Amino acid sequence: MNYCKAILFIIGYLTIIYIIGTAIGAKYSAPRRFIYGYLLNTFIVSAAGIFTQMFAINWYIYYYFVLIVDLLMLIASIYKIRRDGIILFDGGFRSFVSNYWFLILVALIATSLVAIYNFELWDNNTTDDAYYLARMAYYPYIKNPYSIDPTTGFPSVHKIIDLRNFTSFEIEASVYIYFLKIYSTLFARGVMSFINYFIFSVSIYAFVEKVIEVSGLEVRRQNIQYYSIIMLLLCFETAQLAIHGIIDIRDGWMINHAMYFGASLIRSVGFIWLLIPVLEFEEDKKKSILLFVIMAFVLLAKSTVVIPIIAVVGIVGLAYHLILMKDKRILIYVVLLILFSFLLGNNWQNSLTNYTDGVYYNHLYDNLKSPIIIIFEVCILFIAFIRRKKYLKTNILFALICIMFIIPPLNNIIEKTSVYAFVDKRAVSAFTMLIVLYACILVLNEVFIYITSIFKNVLVRNIGFTLLSIIIALSSALTVDKSLNNIKQDLIVFKNNRYLAPSFIIDLADDLNDISKQTQKQLTILTPQFVSAQQDYHQRWYNRKKEIPNIALAGSIRQFAPTVRVPFARNGDDTLFEKYSAFLFYPNKKNFNTFIHVQRKSEVNCIVMWNKKGDRLLKDSGFKRYKNKVSSQYCILYIYYK
């Protein structure tokens, strides 16, 4: 039933967004309409979400606001489409499918790969999901969700001005999770990931369409959809490339198995979106500025890591148009920009990562020297030169972006607007992806314009690009697992844990919810930090070293039992958890007495044990054992509560 609701939501959501986009952008292609619909809907919903979080407004007000806004926008859009006689599907539905089916296919392929990344999902996406998924899950169930630490459930200080308040994708997701009554893991890792992959694919289409238009090229609309195959290249499993020193994309794993993150969408479409109004500025200045502002706001609402990208595109955009207009003020602009960059000062260390003592990796310059990136750089230089008259405008724009990232002191602006080193590295990774994207666009232009004889047959085209997509996806998967046997094992694991989370954690959370309901108490639970997943996996390369994967238990419970408090996640090395761990692994009387002494001074009223060896000791101290035990191939868990 959860999957049925997920599929119906995806179909319904994408349809509503497309209808809204058609009403406000009828003259554009379907992908551009979709982007416009998404921007308008998200702009309104995000603005309300930010306001709600800043002033700690009752979540249910926001919940009904979002549902009403979605409904009213749909009704208003249908009315406008019918009143103005707007055609929903240009050329008819059959032609519509023929022109855009590939955009959905690549999104489906990218999403399906999540099923073989459960190695990372079991680790809670390096524990980041302990924050994001818990936050999505608890909004409807906590009296004041804005003064709660998402990872633990304990009170925290609410601040009106807080960067977290300006990120709204979690509170937006909470509306639909509550409305659908669906698991947060399935909605985020499955539904949201597919939607974001689809946004990525249609954004590539829209950007390619604009590059073709600006360059005066002639590419059939039906062929533009195939450019979205670039997305699968950009979603390639970068961890293996980093291990072998080929290229290192900071947090590259996000785009593989955490596409629902706001930061993943930033890395994917940040440059693509913001460059479109820059390229359209000459056509309609006011509209382009408005579009840029709306896009910047929506991206900021996804993640504030977009700030350096906004700064770069804004600065480059002004320089680009001064150059096109042959305005002499460009010299003054450049001089002022250089002086400003000097005043900001250098912070080049932001681009470095120390993997081993004394060995650093420069995410900017080392990536640019990577053999793989050099191939793309050569493609850009060669094609841009031989077709220099065609690509004059886009080449100028691309060159200006390169200068802002590569040339000191101008790159001081990126380093300073990033504030944090990880933000700087993510901006560099987005720039690296832009290099690959632009190179692939130029190469595919050559294929479709100058080597058309191979692709005249539509069936051959469709089969060829479908097979190529599958090959790219499988190549990415094989780099992770080394063999088809391991991919098969991953799929078996997914089959047994079909909600993109270990099933035993869901069972444990259900029992905790039942205990909380029975006792009418706030549960504060001590639980193991990790459970070994060695039954499913042998050692693998992860984060540049071999690891045996563990299942993050403590940080995952609140994704399914949002009212439970988990003190471990707040302070993993405190005395309470230390004494609990000793009793958990060695449940003797000595360890019990030490543990119970600190437990009585705490708020803990529920503990999880591996076995029943401490059963009598716990019962004598007032604990009850829950009627059910949680059994799985990973462990057996017993719950004791007061």
Automatic annotation (TrEMBL):
It comes from the Bacteria. Keywords: Membrane, Transmembrane, Transmembrane helix. The chain crosses the membrane at residues 6-26, 38-55, 61-79, 100-119, 186-206, 226-246, 258-276, 288-318, 330-348, 368-385, 392-410, 430-451, 458-478. This is Uncharacterized protein. It comes from Sharpea azabuensis.
